Amino acid sequence: MRALYLGITAALMFACGATAGNEAGFVSIFNGKDLTGWRLVNGKGRGYVVDADHTLECPADGGGNLLSEKEYSNFILRFDFKLTPGANNGVGIRAPFEGDAAYQGMEIQILDDEDPQYKGWLRPEQHHGSVYDLIPARVGFRKPVGEWNSEEIYANGPHIRVTVNGVIILDSSLDIIREPEVLKKHPGVRRTSGHVGFLGHGSQLWFRNIRIKQLQ
Hints:
The protein is mainly beta. It has helices at 2-16, 101-104, 180-185; strands at residues 27-28, 38-41, 49-50, 56-58, 64-68, 75-83, 88-95, 106-111, 148-156, 159-164, 167-173, 195-200, 205-214. The radius of gyration is 17 Å and the shape is globular.
């Protein structure tokens, strides 16, 4: 019984990213007090705000691209997120400050894709966790709207892996994207470094525990 208990506990800690060894090398990039280390690009309304409970909020009357001042090449990014019904955002990776981060860099979709407003027209590569407009993710692994989820984005060269609540929902290579017309639309897939951050579209949601580990 004790062995079973320990096994279950270890599995739960791994799923939550909670073991000390699993967090080795990670550095927090959000201090929970203000937006030091971040730059708001193409901000809308209130942009992003830090709430009293030290979470990062994208208000319904805000948004824009909140990008790290620092650039990253190969990394593991971890964070928690909480959605409101129909919420739409994204995680920009290897993005420049200039231009549309989803195309000049890449966007990992953050979306309440089960909301009725998206039924019948959402394409596979637009679901939560997808490399937006390029590579679809598996669906059905988010917690109900209003609950906190954990997410990890692994980017190492062309290898991109997205894990939500301990489940790998995307594991692919950017090298599969070879069509000239797609590469022309998404030149960012060939970028090797850039900023990370959040790409708000005027819907409310929250982030916390934002940390990153740089890889060689």
